[in-house]
Specification:
The protein has 157 residues and is α+β, with helices and mostly antiparallel strands. It has two domains: 6-44; 53-147, Beta Barrel (OB fold (Dihydrolipoamide Acetyltransferase, E2P)). It has two helices and eight strands.
Length: 157
């Protein structure tokens, strides 16, 4: 029996009509075909952005546990030692949505009383407290005033 050698293996491949280069070409074609099949679904998928869904305050309850931007008018600002609450669209107890700012974050919005009457957008995860939807404000970029009320004493033109 002869010892194994590459020359013997190569000679056998040549006798069977399979040289090294044709075998590598077949392997390369199969690999490219596989990559083409795998990459087609990735290209076809819809591009998703990090932009949260924009919803009115009245619809926030249907989006609990999801990231969203909730918009509405601040109709009530309620302050306690532990937190501030901004009720949107209707005052307590009929508010459809509340923005909660805990005491350790109230310095983020020093003039919170001026938000009453303003149209705002609040971004973040909608949670529920006592069956009411809310977003807890932890950063200033979560709150955006989208429409300012006219200053008192000035007439609309």
């Amino acid at each position: 029996m002869q010892p194994y050698s590459w020359e013997t293996d190569s000679a056998l491949a040549n006798r069977c009509g399979l040289g090294y280069q044709p075998a590598m070409k077949i392997l390369a074609l199969v690999s490219l075909g596989f990559l083409a099949l795998v990459s087609v679904p990735v290209v076809a998928q819809e591009v998703k952005t990090n932009t949260p869904t924009r919803i009115p305050a009245a619809h926030a309850k249907q989006h609990v546990n999801s990231e969203a931007t909730v918009f509405g008018k601040v109709v009530e600002v309620y302050k306690t030692d532990r937190l501030f609450r901004l009720n949107l669209d209707q005052p307590f107890p009929n508010q459809p949505f509340t923005v909660v700012i805990f005491a350790n974050k109230t310095n983020l919005i020093p003039e919170i009383d001026k938000l009453k009457g303003e149209a705002v957008e609040i971004s973040g995860k909608i949670t529920e407290y006592r069956d009411q939807p809310q977003i807890v404000l932890v950063a200033t970029n979560q709150l955006k005033v989208v429409e300012t009320k006219p200053e008192e004493g000035k007439e609309k033109q």
